[in-house]
Amino acid sequence: MVCLGPLTNVALALKLDPNFNFKRIVIMGGNYYGIGNVASKSSAEFNFHGDPEAASIVLHKLAPRLVIVPWEAFFLEGAKHQKEVDFNAHLHYDTKLASFLRTVTSRGRAAMEKNGRQFSYCDEIAVAAAINLEKVARKTVHLRVNVELSGTHTRGQVVVDWVDVLWNNEDAEYVASQGKMIDRNSSPITFIASYNVLVVDDWLKKAVRGEPGPW
């Protein structure tokens, strides 16, 4: 299952059906460096900010099955990737899907263009990861997290347990600690820290052209 908005429906499904079960759920939402996109004084990502309680329920109940594409994948990775691909190329195809995507991304593209950047991939990463995580994810990190449910500026922010992490000095890799001090009620969640933009770009162009997949 792929979730591209607030997690209200998933949280309700968990409450209503004890047998609610998916092998993997890929979520576009949340953050892990506290980079927000709701307002100038908020450190929350839009989807989690829309229903922090639902996000908290889903992350706690389904942690081992979750793959999260955080806002940083758009915000940080996009700036680097626009040197590798043209994020607008697929929008120029003469297809109904290209026309639809031009419409739904118009405001975002306009806002990014004011800052000299293209509107990079976001939801597309989550869909591609659901198709083939191994081909799409260049780097994943496994972290124990909570969702802030209070706070004037932080409500909806994903809070990472940075205290109980293990660091690899060679490349500053971080993984959830298995030490005695960690919260055993909190399972590590997989975050996509870096993705293969060339794969996502290729798949998206083929989908917009109407070519059959998966690729």
From TrEMBL:
GO terms for molecular function: hydrolase activity, hydrolyzing N-glycosyl compounds. It comes from the Eukaryota. Residues 2-170 form the Inosine/uridine-preferring nucleoside hydrolase domain. InterPro entries: Inosine/uridine_hydrolase_dom (IPR001910), IUN_hydrolase (IPR052775), Ribo_hydro-like (IPR036452). Belongs to the IUNH family. This is Inosine/uridine-preferring nucleoside hydrolase domain-containing protein. It comes from Haemonchus placei (Barber's pole worm). The lineage of its organism: Eukaryota, Metazoa, Ecdysozoa, Nematoda, Chromadorea.
